[in-house]
Write a structure and sequence with these properties.
The structure is a homodimer. By secondary structure, chain A is of the alpha/beta class. Chain A has 12 helices and 12 strands. Chain A has 3 domains: 7-52, 434 Repressor (Amino-terminal Domain), CATH 1.10.260; 65-162 and 296-321, Response regulator (Rossmann fold, 3-Layer(aba) Sandwich), CATH 3.40.50.2300; 164-294, Rossmann fold. Chain A has helices spanning 7-14, 18-26, 34-47, 53-60, 77-91, 105-117, 132-140, 164-177, 193-208, 224-237, 250-262, 296-311, and strands at residues 65-70, 95-100, 122-125, 144-149, 157-162, 183-187, 215-218, 244-247, 272-277, 290-293, 318-321, 324-326. In chain A, strands 2-1-3-4-5-11 form a 6-stranded parallel β-sheet, sandwiched between helices. In chain A, strand 6, helix 9 and strand 7 (215-218) form a beta-alpha-beta unit. In chain A, helix 1 (7-14) packs across helix 2 (18-26), helix 1 (7-14) packs across helix 3 and helix 5 (77-91) packs parallel to helix 12 (296-311). Chain A is elongated. At the A-B interface, helix 4, helix 5, strand 2, helix 6 and helix 7 of A face helix 4, helix 5, strand 2, helix 6 and helix 7 of B. Strand 2 (95-100) of chain A pairs antiparallel with strand 2 of chain B. The structure holds a DNA duplex.
Chain lengths: 334, 334
DNA sequence: TTGAAAGCGCTAACAC
DNA sequence: GTGTTAGCGCTTTCAA
């Protein structure tokens, strides 16, 4: 395979200086004689030369990479976010460095560090906490930072937030309207602010409607796939069973549904269930899942737009996306 | 935010040479006086200095990035592959540059080019075709290349393949065993080799069992989400309806199932359906989907292992992963 | 319209 | 143990 050709090799073969080759490559209207252009072009073809961006980066200090840190790509919500990010980034010529934090604070920190070292232009992060120092370190290095979902108490950080509390409130309202009086909330560990907000909305709506029954079933593990089943099992051990369930997200809802169905609990006949996220497949489930829609792809696109705004020196801002209730077949009048 | 600190700044503050700082940072056992270490450490803290990897890359010509090109992250099969890739890569300290080709040859080419320029150490690519020139260009630049799913007619390319034909054969066998005689194959455009192989397996199994009925329903668009519904609609227009369906992948199967269910066709009572991939959620569907399991996460892990093997100068190889039939509730004896 | 040369931040060979 | 220095591939100023 031999060594890669450099701009020097091209210059030598084309019998011009590297400066001229560089100008040719940058293609910015700098005047070059047609004849010269031609010979450079030939040399490039002959060597099948590809510019080394690292050289340019070192010189210009301009990277075209964006770091993206998400909890886990295995929850389809995030691929949809990434899709939005990548779409917008591609349009602008940026690439995505993808990192899964696995909801592990150390791993997240490590990734942030690596990404800084790699000189990313910006960082989009769906965090697991409010690590003030970590974020201010990023910002102080001139890297544009956009946070997803969880609010961060720091200026100069773009934020694409979602009204989780209201979403939960809407879900519970819907269930109450259907006549349900016993509604449980099934959730992964209540560590993220977003989850706590869902809990808040759940509690608030019950209180506002003078419903005394409430049951929060929480599980310790982070694995959403299996959590649903575990939560379902835990629920069935209770003696005062609910007639309806709010799940912390769609993936968990699926697990619960599957477990209940296997255990002869019919959905929605015996128990109604509402999810959270409205990932694509939710409408393909059978019964299709009633859920709170959180615009995933749009979240990604907005994040990138914000990132570029910050990069252009504009004031960073917060956007609060609003939930929407998607009524499907998994909820039923009691 | 000011300018980022460099190794020079650190050296100046610590009152040592940049060489010493560099040695300190590389932390490779090179002897440094404790006292010196301490003052360097302080300087680094004081400046909140982060090494600039670009400088190192230019010098050492060693990148720690791997490019990953997949068709679309929106089909959950790929996030699972990526999960496997990222897991293994993380262990080795590598990062992932993620690209969605959207099954667009131009976009793919563009991405490959960018990734080469960014000096990735390796490239994992789930391609849309057998672009010999593209691949040999990659290889000739000393970049390790691993191809997923589709076979490539080029040496020095690692390949993690899957026995699609056999998978389809197994699916059809299963359906025949259940007494089905009219089995249709519903598919996205038959452009990828993998899809054509599924078709082959379908045809072959029918022929081997002297079944004359066969019906291939193909759709033109690439969007798997909506394809299922379109395929379902197209199917219902036929006059000689099948009693069973093989879908080209699970996502398509979901769409079909949903459409059929909405149109009063019961699954599996009226029509049995088999998917392909066994993405995580398939067992959470209701009815749970019978499908051919394709080990996605393992595919990703193997790809990375291969990549590192190639990087270490080992002979590149091919691995053919074998399918497994996962029988669930979407298929039924006739 | 072109070239010479400095220098981006870092590593590593060599010298002491 | 530590410092000096060349140079990785590129862009860009300055000069011609």
């Amino acid at each position: 395979m031999g060594k890669k050709a450099t701009i020097n090799d091209v210059a030598k073969i084309a019998n011009v200086s590297i400066a001229t080759v560089s100008r040719y490559l940058s293609n910015n209207g700098y005047p070059i004689k047609e004849q010269t252009k031609k010979s450079i072009k030939n040399a490039i073809l002959q060597l099948s030369y590809t510019p080394n961006i690292v050289g340019r980066m070192l010189k210009t200090n301009k990277s075209m990479d964006i770091g993206v840190i998400i909890p886990t790509i295995l929850n389809p919500y995030y691929p949809a976010v990434i899709y939005g990010i990548e779409k917008k980034a591609y349009e602008k010529g940026y690439n995505i460095l993808l990192c899964n934090s696995q909801r592990d604070a150390n791993r997240q920190k490590q990734y942030v560090n690596t990404l800084i070292q790699k000189q990313v232009k910006g960082l989009i992060i769906s965090s697991i906490g409010d690590d003030f120092l970590l974020y201010s370190d990023i910002v102080s290095k001139g890297i544009a930072l956009v946070s997803l979902e969880d609010e961060i108490s720091l200026d100069k950080v773009g934020q694409v937030l979602f009204n989780y509390e209201k979403g939960a409130y809407m879900a519970i309202s819907h269930l109450l309207k259907l006549g349900h009086k016993k509604i449980a909330f099934l959730t992964s560990p209540l560590v993220r602010k977003s989850r706590k907000d869902i809990l808040k909305g759940y509690i608030k709506c019950l209180k506002d409607n003078n419903v005394t029954y409430n049951k929060v079933v929480e599980i310790n593990e982070e694995n959403e796939y299996e959590n649903g089943a575990l939560l379902g099992a835990k629920l069935l051990l209770e003696d005062d069973l609910p007639t309806a369930i709010l799940a912390v997200n769609d993936m968990v809802a699926y697990g619960v549904m599957q477990y209940l169905t296997q255990n002869k609990v019919k959905i929605p006949e015996d128990i109604s269930i509402v999810g959270f996220d409205d990932i694509k497949i939710s409408k393909m489930m059978n019964p299709a899942l009633t859920t709170i829609s959180q615009p995933s792809q749009k979240t990604g696109e907005l994040a990138v737009s914000m990132l570029f705004d910050i990069l252009e020196g504009k004031e960073s801002k917060k956007i609060l996306l609003e939930p929407e209730l998607i009524i499907r077949a998994s909820t039923k009048k009691i």
